[in-house]
Structures
1.
Amino acid sequence: MLVVGIKSRPVYTGLSIDAHAPRHLFALENEGARAVLEQADKACLAKSEILYIGADSFATELAGLKPFDLWTAHTVPILLNRLKVTLQTAKMGTRLYIAGTESFIGQAMQVALELGIDFNSIRTEHRGSLARRVQCVHCKGITDKVTTSPYTCTHCGLPLLVRDHYSRRLGAFQGVNIDAEEPGTAPAPEVLFP
Amino acid sequence: MSINTDMTVRVVAISQVAEKVKRFRLERADGGAMPVFSGGAHVVVAMRDGDLLRRNPYSLMSSPRDTSAFEISTLRVENSRGGSAFMHEKLKVGDRLIVSQPINLFPFDGRGRKHILMAGGIGITPFIAMMDQMQREDRPFELHYAIRNRGHGAYWKELTERYGPHRVKIYVDDEKLFIPVDQILGAQPLGTHLYVCGPAGMIDGVLGRARGAGWPEQNLHCERFLAPPPGKSFRVILRKSAKTLTVATHQSILEAVEAAGVDAPFLCRGGACGQCETSIVSYQGALEHNDHYLEPDDKQSGRKIMICVSRLNGPEITLDL
């Protein structure tokens, strides 16, 4: 069960390289590395800084492209912190690209938005799992890697319907109690976001 | 239809602020408060010049929070269509005008980390109100202001004194001082927005260089007000109103429509906002699209026209008005 057709649902149009940018900054998570590895034109890599989190095999492949700089993190929060520091000191002309799961894109986007970067100017590509980061609208707790709807809120225990309603500020979809009128009547969870 | 919320105002002061620039202070005739506005907004001023009703857009340059009066500044343009000549030579203290509610087609992006304002000549006016608001809201900004010479340029001295030479940079053509555009564009923190107001050549030049330096489209803003260019006279048939009228050489379609007593929608009267988009039923001749609003394929389709600045080179056009 899913509520669709909501305008706030983000659209990820792919990593098209800005030919005019003198500098490129990539934030990549796991299979998101493929969005760079599969780029036809690799000339931009000489002026690219890549921040990467994920499997070692992709890190090795990325290093093989000889980017200007490749930095790998062990956890997403560490990568996000590095991203923040890099963006704080970056100049206009640096183009930001984000590729990976929706949860990763949403969190990296949050960092960029806080620094006044327009979300429309950020190029994004969804790669990997469809799992969602969802906020329970009742207790405000956020659960990551949600693959089913409904799912049980890991904070307050309510069964939640996952909507396409997305908050860019929170980097999360909204989950709403599915059996509020008659508690205990929630349908069985369906795997919708494998 | 444009909602009629126009206000009658009285001219309470006129000052000569530079060689060809005058400032006009307008208070409400009924003694009421002016609405507050946001920096970058303009009003459309309607002036009765003999039998003619002129309507021109002017940027508001007074403080956006000052509800006692609105202030506008106008440049006396040679070969003007009459608006600036009227303002400079005929308008007197005590005269009445009609002004629209403030309309902002040039707001600053509040999410920006820093704001770079580039003005050429009389293009300074929207930035005066904008800087007042940015100062109050404690937003980092820099003004880069190009003038022909120090006698011709308006407000450069006052602005430098008010905001300090670290935030206000003046460039004087006659002294061979030019805005170092590339140097400025290359030194801004990520999240900076650029605003340009001035002659068309300056706007196109600066924005072109910003795009070339990798600035995203979302961070680029400009205000181009275009006076309706003159052209050959032609006939307009208004299908819904069942009227036929003639657009004179120095008149826009919108002005001719208004003179015929038909209320057509408009906001900027400068080909920028899109409010006056009108469907064409048929025409003979060639359309002269002078606006910055319609997409190239819309212009080619021959089905739409922005009646505030665009016209026809030909005998007759029928509009869905």
2.
Amino acid sequence: MSQLWQWVRGYFSAACGAWNDFWFTAIDAATLSLIRICVGAMLLYTHFIWTFNLYAFFGPRGWLPMELVERDQEIFQNFAWSLFYHIESPALIWCVHIVALVVFVMLMMGLFSRVVSVLAAFLAIMYVVRVSPGAFFGLDKINCFLALYLTIGPCGARYSLDSLWRKRSGNTDEPRPSVSANLAIRLMQWHLAIIYLFSGLGKLQGQAWWTGEATWMSIANLEYQSLDVTFLAHYPALLDLLTHVTVFWELFYIVLIWNRWLRPWMLMIAVGMHGFIALCLGMMTFGIAMLIANLAFVSPRLVRALFDPVARRVSLALTDTGSVAPQSPTKKTGPTQ
Amino acid sequence: MSTGRKQTDSTPQNPTSKSAAKPKPASEIVGWPAWARGLVSLLLVWHLAAIFLAPFSQPPTSRLVAFLAQNPVVRAYTDPLYLNHGYSFFAPEPGPGHVIEYTLFDSTGNQLETSRFPSKREQWPRLNYHRFMMLADQLDAFPSEELREPRAKYMLTNYALQILREHPTADRAIARRLVHFMPTRADFLNGVALDDPKLWSEEYSVTQTRADLVQAEARSKQLPRSDSDPEPELITPGSQP
């Protein structure tokens, strides 16, 4: 009995250790900072496009009038809320829009990152709630969940105006490893894995994903098509293979992506699949957003190896210090670090 | 490539090595005190359960999962954070394309123009086109079978009114929602083009006049629904792609 008790204790002790190790180990914020730049740029572009039809989509009357929203709120018993539910004036809607674009620029540049990341997530949700259902799609879901997790960690620790400001103030210390950076990255990883799992499970309900016809049905949809690859009709085995690889890859992503040897292959398939969607099915933004989410599985060390030289040059040019400048005797911190 | 854990992220180890999988004692973990880790762990379990159950609860689903994911306590968390979704990208099958075609007439009944959206010529860049494609696609993306058609017609009516707003010289608009099916691979190889007229069919059609537009501006609610209509289903709008 005591042996069984010891085994149970040992099991839970090891499980708690693994849980702590997974979620609460401090990591370098390089990956999170790179994702911040990409998400900021994607949010900026996504919302800049609304500029072409701002009042027609976000005004009280238009493609999706407020009467429809109120009715949907009642039917769906939805707790979602948008600032745009309460704004009728075109001038005010334009003011919110301009503020939002400025916030997304600041997020991309990494200025006041901790505060701006919260504002960016809030604003991104405000926009998409107003046009759901009606004009939203997968891009908005990915934008919002990434923006949400950026609020958790020090997303401006590197590659940001915040870090330049810190160096310019004389603090040339490297950003410390951060537990909250790890939490943010881990949540991005799990959320993405869950998205792929349910995308794969959803496909299992359709016959075309079993018979191999689904890829043909996708590329033969003229409304989606941005690059004509219907010549693939002459290669049915290739179409079947693409269909089956898509389903299996999505279903098993949640398991295989954690294996260090399989991870590069899983990410390469992600690049191929989302690249295909981006180029051929007209969803460049969605394809790029999914690849940005996949960046969560790229190690901070690799990110630093690729981007630190560039950041160092920018830093040297703007602050005359770079990251190797002597430490100032009076340390000052940046605005948001 | 790895997830970059500070202590364990050195050179890749043999995956069969026991040390690679051995968990690190909590005492070695940098940073937060135990109470903070415990509190955050509870929040993590709550959040992970919420983001897992949300897509799991999209129809078809069990009553248990629908209850767990769509009860007011969970939705008070997932709805405002925009986490209550399905992720059925091109699932269960890649569906046909949808287009809104509209014809405008002046006050004397002369036809002014016939146009369509989404239109690659008129809506640019591509993301702008995609928003209009979603307007056409999500017209009847409604979970309740009984409310689907009246809601689709209501939305199409709003599209017709918006088209009249954007075309001040027009007095009447007829808006139609067209479905554009894809040819099978075999048909395509036998010479059927992707835009073959046989692949198109009309689903819904509405007519709106400028007088309707004036009335609509003053109205607050329009969706045709009476007290005898069935109770709405507890389903979120997240089942769209």
3.
Amino acid sequence: MNVSRKELLRSKVNVDLLKLNFPALITILLNDYEVDAIKQLLKDIGGDMAESWLTFYTPKSANVKRILKMNTLRTFGNLKMKVKMREFDFSLIFYQCPLCRKDIEILSEIPYCLSIAGYYERYFNILASKNPKFKFKKIVGDTIKSISSGDKYCEHLFKYVEI
Amino acid sequence: MSEIKKEKLGFIEKLLGSIGKIYMWFKAKKCNKLLAHLGHLYSVYELAKLTGSYEKALEDIKVILNSSWYAFLGKEKIDYFEYVPPDENGVEKIIWRCNKCMLCSGIDEDIFIKDDLEKIESSLASLLLGIFESFFGIIMEYAGRSFDIKVYETKCMAKGDPYQEITAVFTPKKSENE
């Protein structure tokens, strides 16, 4: 009998496993696909992860800042991060990115942590579709700064496209 | 001065290795195992959707990962380990088995993959195998031994095998003089 997903949910793994996954994937895809297609694919992978993750744990709160902090703690542990809320968008900033490694060669302008933007884009769109207390109905996420691209921190920007 | 070649790791190096892996795990940043599982699973799935068969894409991989492979899985243990000594061509193998595999955990219930299983079941571990090849390459380089290294998943629980089995094949590189 193999390990169940509920058991996986309760256990931990070295985060380097994820950090190596995306550079390996991008390297393979760069042979045959355009940068924009790969970016979309990374966002889709993040989105699929979020949709699956929500089947195991769905927050009841509609407080974006609180959800981001609690979910990061639950998934990646205690990381140095900041959430900036503005009128029509919000930013998630990681000073210690869970997906970027400085020692892995950068092969393109694709940020290794773009999946995080895809993850929270779909995560909040699903939550907002079920909970009218959210300020928005739909958001679009993008990674505008990334440690893997040479920036000092990673910043994921989420714009409200439907209020 | 001639370079010192080590045929195998000595007692002290093995001892340091077994203490080191616990220290590395203790010091490592960790994430939730389910999240890592989903990240790996959907990466392989998206690749399979794009390429039809990911095994074809695997042939094109020439990934050099500039990092080492630590004790990734923490307390998840290897249930069987076998070293196959060199055959007449000098090819060595290591084989290990795990009775629990995080890679294929629950995929038959997965909301995206359950109806599409045959697309990825032959390639579930493929990204991970590339990482293993890099990892062994780094270790062998340290030991001063020159091998072509290939790592295969020889048994897979997603295909109905009772355990996961991975085989690493070390083929000696021929020197230019040979």
